[in-house]
Design a protein that fits this description.
By secondary structure, this protein is mainly α. The protein has two domains: 84 residues, no CATH class; 128 residues. It is 65% helix and 0% strand. Helix 1 crosses helix 3, helix 4 packs antiparallel against helix 9 and helix 7 packs antiparallel against helix 8. The radius of gyration is 18 Å and the shape is globular. The two termini are 17 Å apart. Keywords: Membrane, Transmembrane, Transmembrane helix. One of its GO terms (cellular component) is plasma membrane. This is Prepilin peptidase. It comes from Levilactobacillus suantsaiihabitans. GO terms for molecular function: aspartic-type endopeptidase activity.
């Protein structure tokens, strides 16, 4: 069963990567068929097998030999591993992680992501919380979205703050501090090479890491 779950998770990771690429290029999620983003050549079925195809192709397009980003392989393997933890009890948090993973992929490519993802993930965030906490947290979420629009030079994205709020109200202060420490360390290491970077991917990578450690 774990092997089957890993295969499904790798397929999900491949699909999330493709959808994020299409979000970045503004193309339809339904058509055209999967193709190389550089030479636009449609991909054969054997080039679409998660993990295996990347290794067989040695990380390059079969037609134009352009390099395929290694994040594709990393995401397929990571999603496969994460999905092996699937049970009825973990279904909700895994759906939550999946939505924020897609947001992080979009953010990594364009430093934006679809706003509806926050509201789709929000019921999964507050599902088991008491009503006073839900009302207070939702007010905080709305406050972030309203205030960020009038913030002339924001130092952090509203999506980052929304994920931090969601994590804090479900995991508590200690777990949130540990999560932020890892994410910030990863981001600072990368920031040596970039003046401006998307923080959301590091927050999600840290969340996935802590999820696996705590399983």
């Amino acid at each position: 069963m774990m092997i089957i779950l890993f295969i499904y998770g790798a397929c999900l990771g491949s699909w999330l990567t493709a959808m994020a690429d299409r979000y970045a290029t503004g193309t339809s999620p339904l058509y055209p068929a999967s193709h190389c983003e550089i030479c636009q050549t449609p991909l054969a079925y054997w080039q679409l097998v998660p993990v295996v195809s990347y290794l067989v192709l040695r990380g390059r397009c079969h037609y134009c030999q352009q390099r395929i980003p290694p994040t594709t392989l990393v995401l397929e393997i990571s999603c496969g591993i994460v999905l092996t933890t699937l049970t009825l009890a973990t279904l909700r948090p895994l759906l939550w992680l999946g939505l924020w993973t897609f947001a992080a992929l979009c953010d990594a490519r364009t430093q934006t992501f679809p706003g509806w993802l926050v509201w789709l993930a929000w019921p999964l965030t507050v599902w088991a919380l008491p009503w006073p906490t839900i009302i207070l947290a939702t007010s905080g979420l709305l406050g972030i979205q309203l205030l960020w629009r009038h913030w002339p030079t924001p130092l952090i994205g509203d999506g980052d703050l929304e994920l931090i709020l969601a994590y804090a109200i479900t995991r508590g202060s200690t777990a949130t501090a540990q999560w932020l420490l890892v994410a910030s360390t990863l981001a600072l290491w990368r920031a040596r090479k970039q003046k401006r970077l998307a923080f959301l991917p590091y927050l999600v990578a840290s969340a996935v890491g802590w999820w696996l450690i705590r399983r």
